[in-house]
Amino acid sequence: MKSGWQTKTLGELYQIGSSKRVLKSQWESSGVPFYRGREITRLAMDGYVDNQLFISERHFAELSRQSGVPRVNDILITAIGTIGNTYIVRKNDRFYFKDASVLWMKRSSDVDSEFIRYWLMSYLFFEQLDKGNGATVDTLTIQKLQNVKLHIPTSEEQKRIVSILDESFEAIEKAKENAERNLQNANELFESYLKSVFVHLGEKCGKEKFGEVCTFVRGPFGGSLKKAIFKKDGYAVYEQQHAINNQFVNIRYFIDENKFKEMKRFELHPGELIMSCSGTMGKVAIVPDEIKRGVINQALLKLAPSKRIINVFLKYWMESQSFQDSLKEYSQGAAIKNVASVKVLKSIKIPLPALSTQQSIVAKLDELSEQSIRLESIYMQKLADLAELKQSLLSKAFAGGL
Q1: Where are the beta strands (DSSP E) in 60-101?
Q2: What's the pLDDT tens digit per position in 68-114?
Q3: DSSP characters for 251-289?
Q4: Helices 155-204 and 113-120: crossing angle, nearest 10°?
Q5: What is the DSSP annotation of 52-67?
């Protein structure tokens, strides 16, 4: 510990507790804003929140008399789920918050709350919470927070460190925004080109019904694949995650040979395509060579392309805005969307040029896709580096190295 610094617990610096309980029956459609953990997180991340929950002015005044309400320089910290999002109460803030999901740090010393907020963002804080547990803590209790220890410099040094971190984090945030913008632009550029390819293609060549260029097999009814029949090994059961994540390695469920023979119609073969059909719809993957033999479950559609269409060309078309828009238009279900019937899907029109043209289009799209993936990797690494830079600065600051 650097000379002049003192070791304190958060319980010595703040009176730590939570709010008075507010029942759902006490929520109002107007009045004083009432925040849960998600709203505190939004305040911490964006500095504002569009709140739809309130308590009455009378109730707020009663809570103020009973236990007080958040005051300037108090700190609120999320305590359940994604813990550690912090918000410092500002001068004109006027709200109340949910018990349990948010802990309330009432300032009871002359410590700089901005200094503490930065410390709570550092690995030093989370390392203390995880110590001895061997797993990430997903619930923060009053006692845990009270017992957290940290090194505190003089008031002047706290302000100096906060000033340096403010300036550094502002610069990092601008760099992060630029990286995120570039990442979005890289993705949008490829998607825009993909859309234009099939729009122009549709104007130049004939269109055919989807069902005339593919064989469709929708996954079996859910009752055919009950968990009670699953085995530890055997023939694979392919799920939505395989289409969504474009991977065929991580397999959770298996069936025996008798069940596989019974469900032979749903077997996957290399070169075929699978598409997710419920919730996250329209994600497509091509079945690779040498996969583990298996069948699709009820949430997948299996497509076997005819000799008139290249499977990669078909995949690109199914990923294009044109097909995805048609999919959404015909989807069913209120809360969870489900792909329309196979009969409806078969009627969607697809532009179908000669195989040589398909090959040329695939080659160009492959090249652009590789460039897009390479750029995405660069910008994702940039974002990871910026996050690591933040932690490096925080570690240096709280070791007295700034």
Answers
A1: 75-78, 86-88, 96-97
A2: 899 999 999 999 888 889 999 999 999 999 888 999 999 989 999 99
A3: --EEE-HHHHHHTGGGB--TT-EEEE-BSS---EEEPPT
A4: 50
A5: --EE-HHHHHHHHHHH
Task: Assess contact for 258 and 316: CB atoms under 8 A.
Answer: no
Q: Do residue 31 and residue 113 come from a single domain?
A: yes
Helix runs in 104-154, H state only: 113-120, 123-130, 142-147
The region that residue 131 occupies, defined by phi over 0 for left and psi between -120 and 50 for alpha, beta otherwise, is: beta
**Domain with 395 in it:** 157-203+355-402
Q: How many helices (H) and strands (E) does the chain have?
A: 13, 18
Do 241 and 176 share a structural domain? no
Q: What is the pLDDT of residues 180-189, one digit of tens each?
A: 999 899 888 8
Q: What is the pTM of this model?
A: 0.71
State the DSSP code for 370.
Answer: H
Shared domain for 192 and 312, answered yes or no, is no
Helix (H, G, I), strand (E, B) or coil at 323: helix
Q: Is residue 1, in this structure, part of any structural domain at all?
A: no
Amino acid at 374: R
Question: Rounded distance, CA 292 to CA 273, Å?
Answer: 15
Burial category of 252 from C-beta neighbours within 10 Å (exposed 0-12, middle 13-18, buried 19 and up): exposed
